[in-house]
């Protein structure tokens, strides 16, 4: 069921499991626990719709390198950032979990095989087509010859896309109708409170946007917010220790990462028609598959660079018919009504032929349509090397609830820059030798210019800050995502990633969330209760 904390007289709540956050991970936990007999309470600070007061709580300061995602990629609303993402999914590589000696930090305390069964379960949550494997090669089905790249260098692959990316729309009704899972919105978690021994969570202090306060007690707590906000909550929980929760070794907030992206050059295809055949989106059984290029992990290891991928960006002329049509379709997918200005140009008789052509290609040819004119750019997405000097901390300013705002120092290492440059150079060489076309790289890519970082931006894929480690000296959580030294607190968030691959973090976050719920259910089943006694 859904309840607005400001609309009820109740100020104290009890549950078997309390989940903090109703974004991708929070909804995943709710769905994973839906069929159990456990009382589950999901806390969401935002409302059902976008609210400016809720959004303001995410405002923070950026030190050092610019970072757009601190404000543009965080949503305090039921559904979290799934209300604005595109729905792209791809699992991490098995090599992402392995140690790489040339990186500052690498290696997870779990393996790809540990997560593999949970990756399969994520597709039920995402709503992607599980009958089509991630190794799917749509070019073969379409009788399109793949380029003859040199072995063990780069290869084409496709990512899967959700039909309904917004989890509140896709799954909200299931939660709303449940009598065991309650989603309490307008309930911002201000602080995690310890028991007397400080080895378990005693309660959570919550507040509405207007300042009404309450307490939540649960046998187990799963912190399922975004990376930045979960770090902020841990640092704000000073009843555990002056330095915050889980911060005995000064690791909370450290090793913050985001995927680093850069436009590295312009592609001049040998044949534009052939290029569209390779890189326009594919559709199968009504689901979208987006072509990309990935660096072979063996090449990365041999070259002592990190994992990276690339995408081809077809730039449509400003206000082009195709772009306007895509915006209308995107609005309709969100179950919203397009504005008249969005559809006015699409209903002109003279433009109908272009729309019909794109519609036919989608419906009959199972292909998307990209701009037929305009420049084509090569964009690299690299994982970011985790460095201690890249971190989230608490600033001096406070928000409307009295919580200290985030201060982010985002540092991009030389290895990260080198990965982008070497990947760009390799793709240029492989495209040209395969006869696809020429790639004209930007000057900063081909020189030793110290301005390279100026061209690198974030991709709204935040990770790190509550690093998973083999022990408390190396991380904040263990391989099960339980906080070291706190018996009933788990973290289902990209904040725990030791490294972040090149893939969108959502799928791996969901896999971890499902795994955590299985662990917590088993602990409750085995009678592994925490030191906090809950009645009822």
UniProtKB/TrEMBL annotation:
Q: Does the keyword Flavoprotein apply?
A: yes
Keyword Coiled coil listed: no
Q: Which organism is it from?
A: Paradesertivirga mongoliensis
Q: What Pfam families does the record tag this protein with?
A: GMC_oxred_C
Quote the protein name from its UniProt record.
Answer: GMC oxidoreductase
What the entry lists under InterPro entries is as follows: FAD/NAD-bd_sf, GMC_OxRtase_C, P2Ox-like
Which terms are listed as keywords in the entry? Answer: FAD, Flavoprotein, Oxidoreductase
Q: Where is the Glucose-methanol-choline oxidoreductase C-terminal domain?
A: 389-513
> Which cofactors does it use?
FAD
């Amino acid at each position: 069921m859904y309840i607005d904390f400001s609309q009820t007289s109740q100020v104290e709540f009890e549950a078997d499991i309390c989940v903090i956050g109703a974004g991708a991970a929070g909804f995943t936990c709710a769905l994973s626990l839906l069929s159990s007999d456990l009382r589950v309470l999901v806390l969401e600070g935002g409302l059902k719709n976008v609210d400016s007061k809720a959004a303001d709580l995410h405002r923070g300061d950026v030190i050092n390198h610019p970072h757009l995602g601190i404000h543009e990629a965080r949503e305090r609303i039921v559904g979290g950032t799934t209300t604005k993402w595109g729905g792209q999914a791809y699992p991490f590589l098995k090599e992402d979990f392995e140690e790489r000696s040339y990186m500052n930090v690498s290696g997870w305390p779990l393996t790809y095989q540990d997560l593999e069964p949970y990756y399969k379960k994520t597709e039920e949550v995402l709503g992607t087509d599980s009958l089509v494997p991630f190794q799917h090669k749509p070019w073969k089905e379409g009788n399109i010859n793949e380029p003859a790249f040199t072995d063990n260098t780069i290869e084409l692959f496709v990512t899967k896309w959700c039909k309904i990316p917004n989890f509140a729309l896709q799954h909200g009704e299931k939660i709303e109708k449940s009598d065991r899972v309650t989603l309490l919105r307008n309930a911002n978690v201000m602080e995690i409170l310890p028991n007397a021994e400080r080895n378990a969570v005693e309660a959570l202090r919550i507040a509405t946007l207007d300042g009404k306060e309450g307490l939540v007690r649960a046998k187990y707590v799963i912190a399922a917010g975004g990376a930045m906000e979960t770090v902020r909550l841990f640092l704000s929980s000073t009843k555990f220790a002056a330095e915050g929760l889980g911060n005995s070794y000064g690791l909370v907030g450290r090793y913050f990462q985001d995927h680093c992206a850069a436009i590295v050059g312009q592609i001049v295809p040998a044949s534009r028609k052939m290029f569209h055949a390779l890189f326009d989106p594919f559709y199968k059984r009504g689901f979208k598959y987006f072509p990309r290029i990935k660096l072979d992990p063996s090449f990365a290891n041999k070259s002592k660079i990190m994992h990276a991928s690339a995408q081809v960006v077809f730039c449509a002329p400003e206000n082009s018919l195709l772009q306007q049509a895509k915006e209308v379709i995107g609005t309709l997918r969100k179950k919203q009504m397009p504005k008249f200005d969005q559809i006015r140009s699409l209903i002109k008789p003279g433009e109908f032929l272009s729309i019909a052509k794109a519609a036919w290609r989608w419906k009959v040819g199972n292909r998307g349509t990209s701009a037929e004119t305009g420049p084509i750019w090569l964009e690299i997405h690299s994982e970011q090397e985790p460095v201690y000097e890249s971190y989230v901390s608490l600033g001096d300013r406070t928000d409307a609830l009295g919580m200290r705002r985030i201060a982010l120092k985002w540092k991009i290492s030389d290895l990260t820059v080198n990965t982008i440059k070497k990947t760009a150079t390799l793709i240029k060489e492989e495209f040209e030798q395969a006869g696809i076309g020429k790639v004209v790289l930007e000057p900063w890519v081909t020189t030793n210019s110290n301005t390279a970082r100026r061209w690198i931006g974030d991709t709204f894929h935040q990770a790190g800050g509550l690093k998973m480690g083999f022990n408390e000296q190396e991380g904040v959580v263990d391989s099960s995502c339980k906080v070291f030294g706190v018996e009933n607190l788990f973290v289902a968030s990209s904040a725990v990633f030791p490294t972040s691959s090149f893939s969108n973090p959502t799928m791996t976050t969901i896999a971890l969330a499902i795994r955590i719920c299985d662990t917590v259910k088993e602990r409750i089943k085995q009678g592994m209760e925490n030191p906090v006694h809950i009645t009822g």
